UniProtKB/TrEMBL annotation:
One of its GO terms (cellular component) is membrane raft. This is Ig-like domain-containing protein. The keyword Transmembrane helix applies. The keyword Transmembrane helix applies. Residues 35-104, 123-227 form the Ig-like domain. Keywords: Membrane, Signal, Transmembrane, Transmembrane helix. One of its GO terms (molecular function) is protein tyrosine kinase binding. The lineage of its organism: Eukaryota, Metazoa, Chordata, Craniata, Vertebrata. InterPro entries: Ig-like_dom, Ig-like_dom_sf, Ig-like_fold, Ig_sub, Ig_V-set. SMART domains: IG. It comes from Cyprinus carpio (Common carp). Gene3D superfamilies: Immunoglobulins. Coiled coil: none annotated. Residues 229-299 are annotated as: Disordered.
Length: 362
């Protein structure tokens, strides 16, 4: 009972501070969505900002961010900067950035004036489903939560006394609360609004927006865009192709050194037909070899192919040698034929002279 009275008393004090201020303190509330850049004003700043100090508080923890115009916080160092008017700029706000920010002035280590307070509330939208689960016909639940300083505010009091609202709207700005297709629930304990629906085909690339209204004024909004995963094309198994070209197979150096081109010969045609047949046979075997062929079968196939190619080149070599022998032996054969013809001519002439002599004698 005492705890409830304490919470009610604290809520009244905070409410009075927000409406009228206490001891001249200027309180301010800033709403933004996660991922945005935000600017927090310092209403008690002195010229030059060298006397300005910014502190951050949340859950009874206080961290010094800026001291006499110089950044001191290492965790958010890259995202913090000080404006020319001593305002605090925060880049890419996260839900952990929510809380109380205090701007304080020091001159000669003596505080000047009163503190300027800024309460930062961060709106964050997320999905309960992973990207692979978001598809037409499936159910999706979107969560819109407002993060704030739990030690200073309660969502119940803010909703009841200050008119705080979390509203789901479509791309046209129409409230989805009245659409029976969507089931919307609100938890004041967590300041969380949930939207559940079954996705349709036309929901691809559609935006749903969660808005925060404070005293009937739109403060900020966060958008969720539905993205269906593009189905990946299934790849059919492709035949295994050997990297070695059939026109230039791997073979011993001795076989390559004996390849001599021969023109205008039947033997060349036969050898080329044999080579073409071997190449065609190799291509057929390569094309019909499935991707799941084991390394042992591939090695055996390569060995057989190399053996056939070696045999073909050996046959070419033998034919070339025969042709060379025929070319070198041709002059000798022709010379022998000439000698034989001349000898035959001499014998015929002698025989005719003998006949003439016998005739004269008679």
């Amino acid at each position: 009972m005492a705890d409830k009275r304490h919470m009610c008393l604290r809520g009244l004090i905070i409410l009075c501070a927000l409406l009228s201020g206490i001891s001249g303190v200027d309180d301010n509330q800033v709403f933004c969505s996660s991922g945005e850049d935000v600017r927090l004003s310092c209403n008690n700043a002195l010229s030059g900002c060298t006397s300005t100090t910014w502190n951050y508080s949340n859950h009874s923890e206080t961290v010094e961010l800026i001291a006499e115009g110089i950044k001191t916080d290492t965790e958010r160092h890259e995202r913090l900067s000080l404006g020319s008017d001593c305002s605090l700029n925060i880049k890419k706000v996260t839900k952990e950035d929510c809380g109380l920010y205090t701007c304080r002035q020091y001159v000669n280590k003596q505080q000047q004036g009163t503190d300027a307070h800024v309460y930062l509330h961060v709106l964050h939208v997320s999905s309960s489903s992973s990207q692979s689960e978001i598809r037409s016909g499936g159910s999706v639940t979107l969560s819109c939560q407002l993060y704030y300083n739990y030690d200073l505010f309660t969502c119940d009091s803010s909703v009841g006394s200050e008119g705080l609202e979390l509203i789901w709207v479509n791309q046209a700005g129409v409230n989805l609360q009245t659409d029976s297709r969507f089931q919307i629930s609100f938890s004041s304990e967590q300041c969380l609004s949930s939207l559940t629906t079954t996705l349709l085909n036309e929901d691809h690339n559609r935006e749903w927006r969660c808005q925060v209204k404070h005293r009937n004024q739109l403060k900020t909004s966060a958008t969720y865009t539905v993205k269906y995963q593009t189905p990946t094309e299934t790849k059919t198994p492709s035949p295994v192709t050997i990297s070695k070209s059939p026109a230039a197979p791997t073979q011993p150096a001795s076989v390559d050194s004996t390849l001599i081109p021969v023109s205008s010969s039947n033997s060349e045609k036969k050898s080329s037909q044999t080579t073409a047949a071997a190449s065609t046979k190799q291509e057929k075997q390569t094309t019909h070899t499935p991707e799941t062929t084991s390394d042992t079968q591939q090695d055996k196939w390569i060995f057989t192919t190399n053996t056939e190619m070696t045999s073909a080149h050996t046959l070419i070599r033998v034919i070339v040698i025969i042709v060379e022998i025929a070319v070198f032996a041709a002059p000798t054969v022709i010379l022998l034929q000439i000698i034989c013809v001349r000898r035959a001519g001499r014998k015929n002439s002698l025989h005719e002279k003998e006949i003439e002599m016998s005739t004269v004698l008679q």
